[in-house]
Specification:
About 10% of the residues lie in helices and about 35% in strands. The protein is mostly beta strands. The protein has 3 domains: about 160 residues, Nuclear Transport Factor 2, Chain: A; about 130 residues, no CATH class; about 280 residues, Neuraminidase (6 Propeller), CATH 2.120.10. The N terminus is likely disordered.
Length: about 625
């Protein structure tokens, strides 16, 4: 794997064992970024009941190790009153679990080790005064292998290297003293200790929404929020998170927020109405953008059973209504800015493109009944090509030859050979940049379509792939980027590494014109997120976006198609009885798969029945590399 920090799948368990073995949690943070899936199904999010149990107070004569274990169980159950019974009076008076700034999520339950007695220091003075000597004390050490580290303050989430310095928690130490003849905790760590099970039982999945750098689309940033938080507190916390760009993998140039840095923002919730008050220097465009962020985050997030059904945005004392209508903000602004899905605005559907054996490129408006629509030849590029891709605006065509040579051109014009060779994948972003990887050379290149039509080869930009943003990030090396697909918003990317790991990343442009600003390109990097899906047995053969927030992979065993929500959640799979060679998807459109003998099949959805794409006479339509624009 080279120098890349591995980010293994976080398998979330279903039931928390009720035992005095440590389960861990000094407190519950207010929010945190997305984890790996599958995620245990909840029964209604904030509106439902999570799995819980009743913690027991300390028993008479319990030893230090039992006291620490019982304390951790009580805090894991969010039963802080019971937890305080394990604390010495001084510690109980100032213990505030909400002040913890770091959460450790252990792969398995932490180990509560046998106590180490602390040395007894005799009290100074004559023997008659020795009755004031300090009470006996002990130190209990808690260790464990960390799956993830969550910052309570800003929600940032990191997965340490399995062999790195942060793969264990420190360890953490609890100091205990005897009070009234019973052991009690006199000093507890300021960090939070969680198991994977407790995290799954106590947290729910929500989306924050931020803008892409061009402020055209909303980009979902998944977070986990505590099920125990009140709806009012949760609303306030989610609004607070929107005030600044994300601090996770979508940070540093990948996404932006419409909230001005100096603006003052407050939020209240009453009768399912969230009232958000913003004061400061705010433009008309920012008002509409803020309203969209608020609505999609508080109302449209969807996964967590939000108790917010409408939003009032008050800007400098005036209620804001987008546009000139009297419609409430929640009706108008969600249509103003939306997550990008890549779906065609045409009601009749979206065209799919494919190659035939003679080297002609066709477009076809297919349905879901196995009958081909009107087939139109859009280009004659000649034999020897194995893959094509059409830009989202339908203007440009990219084609790969069998030897890995790359060609780009206008869809009805001449294709121009691009610099380099050995390319393996094709994907367009919304601003007519073509992304391609070179497989074994672990390189990803970006081509500006208009720059490659000058009759000479244009130099592409090589993307740097890192394990995150900020000082702790590292450059990925030693991996093969065997497939990649850019999301319709142009910010997120799904990547297959080494044919057996699916990752998600965020595109961040550096100095230079950047996306959509002309023929030139600035520097660019892909910041990998902190979760992945591994299939080391059968591997992945391809990936395609299936909306704003989910992808479909092609992999084993056999020809298995699996839908993965990018924001976590339970995957959905279907094994086909045909040899599937490629898959393409688009929201609201038929799934199209390329199969053996150059035929294509379609289904209305992943769990639907598949039918051969054929003419009205029943003759199968021949085509390879079917693809929707993008």
């Amino acid at each position: 794997m080279g120098s890349r920090v591995r980010r293994p799948l976080l398998a979330v368990l279903a039931v928390l064992a009720v035992a005095l073995a440590v389960t861990g949690c000094v407190s519950i943070p207010n929010a945190g970024p997305v984890l790996s899936y599958p995620v245990t199904e909840q029964t209604g999010g904030q509106n439902g009941q999570n799995l819980q149990f009743t913690a027991q107070p300390p028993g008479a004569g319990w030893m230090p190790q039992q006291i620490v274990s019982g304390f951790l169980i009580a805090t894991a159950a969010n039963q802080n009153q019971v937890a305080r019974e394990y604390l010495a009076p001084d510690e109980s008076s100032h213990w505030n679990p909400a002040l913890a700034t770091t959460t450790y999520v252990y792969k398995t339950r932490p180990n509560v080790l046998s106590p180490v007695p602390s040395p007894t220091v005799p009290a100074p003075g004559p023997a008659s005064a020795k009755k004031s000597a300090p009470p006996p004390s002990a130190t209990v050490e808690v260790t464990g292998t960390i799956q993830a580290i969550l910052s309570t303050k800003d929600g940032t989430y990191a997965v340490p290297s399995a062999s790195g310095p942060n793969s264990s928690s420190g360890p953490e130490y609890f100091t205990l003293v005897k009070t009234g003849g019973q052991w009690r905790i006199s000093a507890a760590p300021s960090v939070l200790l969680l198991t994977q099970t407790q995290f799954a039982n106590d947290y729910d999945l929500r989306n924050l929404y931020f803008f892409d750098p061009t402020y055209h689309y909303l980009v979902p940033d998944p977070v986990y929020v505590p099920l125990q938080a009140s709806a009012s507190r949760l609303t306030t916390r989610l609004v607070d998170y929107l005030k600044s760009p994300p601090a996770d993998w979508l940070a540093e140039g990948a996404t932006e927020t419409a909230f001005p840095p100096a603006a003052k923002v407050t939020a209240t919730l009453a009768n399912n109405l969230a009232t958000v008050t913003v004061t400061g220097t705010i433009s008309k465009a920012q008002r509409a953008q803020m309203a969209s962020q608020l609505l999609w985050t508080l109302v449209g997030s969807g996964q967590g059973g939000s108790q917010v059904t409408s939003v009032d945005l008050i800007v400098n004392g005036k209620q804001f209504y987008p546009g000139s209508t009297d419609n409430p903000v929640e009706t108008q602004s969600q249509a103003t800015y939306r997550p990008a899905t890549g779906a065609s605005p045409a009601a009749a559907g979206q065209r799919v493109y494919y190659l035939d054996s003679a080297g002609d490129v066709y477009s076809n408006l297919v349905g879901v009944a196995g009958v081909a629509g009107q087939q139109t030849r859009v280009a004659q590029i000649g034999p020897g090509y194995k893959q094509v891709a059409v830009s989202q605006d339908g203007k440009y065509l990219a084609a790969l030859r069998g030897n890995g040579d790359l060609y780009i051109g206008l869809i009805h014009g001449k294709l121009e050979k691009q610099q380099g060779s050995g390319y393996t994948t094709l994907s367009w972003d919304p601003t007519d940049n073509l992304w391609s990887s070179t497989g074994a050379n672990d390189q990803i290149f970006v081509f500006r379509a208009s720059a490659g039509l000058s009759g000479r080869q244009a130099r592409p930009i090589e993307a740097t792939v890192t394990t995150g943003a900020g000082p702790g990030s590292g450059v990925v090396s030693g991996d093969e980027f065997t497939a990649l697909q850019i999301a319709p918003d142009g910010v997120r990317v799904a990547m297959i590494l080494n044919s057996d790991e699916l990752y998600f990343g965020a595109i961040a442009w550096g100095p230079g014109p950047g996306p959509g600003a002309g023929p030139g390109l600035g520097s660019v990097r892909i910041q990998l997120s902190f979760f992945n899906v591994s299939d080391f047995t059968s591997g992945f053969a391809g990936v395609t976006w299936y909306g704003a927030d989910n992808v479909i992979t092609l992999g084993g065993p056999g020809s298995t198609l699996t839908e993965y929500p990018v924001n976590g959640g339970t995957p959905t799979s279907q094994m086909l009885d045909q040899s599937v060679q490629s898959i393409t998807a688009s929201p609201g459109q038929a799934l199209i798969a390329g199969v053996a003998k150059g035929e294509m099949i379609e289904a209305s959805n992943l769990t639907g029945a598949w039918a051969t794409i054929a003419t009205s006479a029943g003759t199968p339509v021949k085509g390879i590399s079917p693809t929707y624009p993008g």
